[in-house]
Design goal:
The structure is a single chain. The protein is built from ten helices and 13 strands. The radius of gyration is 24 Å and the shape is elongated. The strands form two sheets. Strands 1, 2, 3, 4, 5, 6, 9, 10, 11, 12 and 13 form an eleven-stranded antiparallel sheet that branches. The longest helix is centred in the first third of the chain and has 19 residues. By secondary structure, it is an alpha+beta fold.
Length: 310
């Protein structure tokens, strides 16, 4: 998968420049992502921020110099970015459990190796390092309320209506699950996707999943209660890392890129195949309270692709 190579190339760039001012924008470009998407994805997969990774890698090299050279402790501290021996001592103690002087005398078994992004399959999930990036979800007998539109830019219209309704009726709106679908596709006439500024008329449905007793009603806060998407789905977080020729964030293209992980999953997983008869995918939107108040780009997206057991 191409993006794995890009991520590992970005780590190589970071490693080559540990003692310099690392350009986060450049590291993100090497990975094929925007800076914000790269930092979010790094945190997701590495379970630490990029800043923390860089700090620990510097400390690893500093510890090696303490044990393998006779350089003065203060000089090692300055080399790895610490402006005082006391600050360096605190960092080394936090990293190894001992002061620099003790590390120099006794060594340290602490190791923090270079990060290497890799894919593995286990128990029906695809992992990048230790983080599940594709998993199988089964949805049965769930209920939703919907906003249906059929216009130019129907996504914005449907989610705008959903936002206004939620602000009036749903106090726990940020805890809900929201899924959208273009039942005829985003390009119902068969055109190819070109860029983020396309304005194409097509139908779109925005759905909010109901919980508990809400599912037993015919109507909920004035809206008809309907059946939710049902069946087996591959679910993947979408990194918002694709831009069009005008440097606009292209969510549709980002989702297309995310589909690479689904193809890889199916190739490496026996017993499942894509549900080609469905011919559609679902977009889960992750909303914050800020989005409900101001709109804009959601906090995140997940892509749902229907699959079936062979």
């Amino acid at each position: 998968m191409d993006y794995i190579e890009g991520l590992n190339l970005s780590i190589a760039y970071v490693e080559e420049n540990l003692l310099e001012d690392i350009d986060y924008e450049k590291a993100a470009r090497i990975a094929g992502m925007s800076r914000s998407a790269y930092q979010r994805f790094f945190l997701l997969v590495a379970d630490m921020t990029l800043d923390e990774y860089i700090r620990k890698r510097k400390l690893q090299y500093a510890v090696l110099e303490l044990t393998d050279t006779e350089h003065k402790i203060v000089d090692i501290a300055v080399k790895y970015g610490y402006n005082s021996a006391a600050a360096f001592s605190r960092a080394v103690r936090s990293f190894t459990g001992n002061t620099p002087s003790i590390v120099r005398k006794e060594g340290s078994s602490v190791r923090f190796p270079k990060l290497n992004f890799k894919i593995r399959m286990e128990k029906g999930e695809m992992f990048m390092n230790e983080t599940a990036i594709v998993k199988i979800e089964e949805h049965r007998n769930e209920k939703v309320v919907c906003f249906n539109t059929d216009c130019v830019d129907p996504e914005n219209e449907a989610w705008g209506q959903m936002s206004e309704w939620c602000k009036k009726n749903i106090p726990d709106r940020t805890a809900r699950r929201y899924v959208g679908v273009a039942p005829s596709g985003h390009h119902p006439q068969g055109e190819e996707h070109r860029n983020a500024s396309e304005h194409i008329k097509h139908p779109y449905k925005a759905m909010m999943f109901l919980v508990g007793d809400e599912c037993n009603q015919e109507k909920f806060c004035g809206l008809n209660v309907e059946d939710a998407p049902s069946g087996l789905f591959l679910v993947n977080d979408v990194a918002l890392n694709q831009f069009d020729e005008n440097d606009n964030l292209d969510i549709a293209l980002s989702m297309m890129k995310a589909s690479e992980a689904f193809v890889e999953f199916i190739k490496n997983t026996a017993g499942y195949e894509f549900d080609c008869q469905s011919g559609i995918f679902y977009e889960e939107h992750i909303f914050s309270e800020k989005w409900f108040q101001n709109g804009g780009v959601p906090n995140g997206f997940r892509m749902w692709v229907p699959i079936i057991r062979k």
